[in-house]
Amino acid sequence: MRWVRPSELPTMVANRYVRRLVASNEAAVRQARQLPRRAIARVRIARTQTASNTAPDRLGGIGQ
Hints:
Elements: H1 9-46
């Protein structure tokens, strides 16, 4: 236990809660920024690109 001036007691007690509030707010902001990025990345992974035509044409070439 540590001695604290009575005038500084409310500040010391409030600082502890303010730090927690700021940390939780920062975590929420980080998470809110990451969720759209993750969703976009997952959508891109889920979509397959259409394959190009690789079947030989009449002249023996590939695709048209």
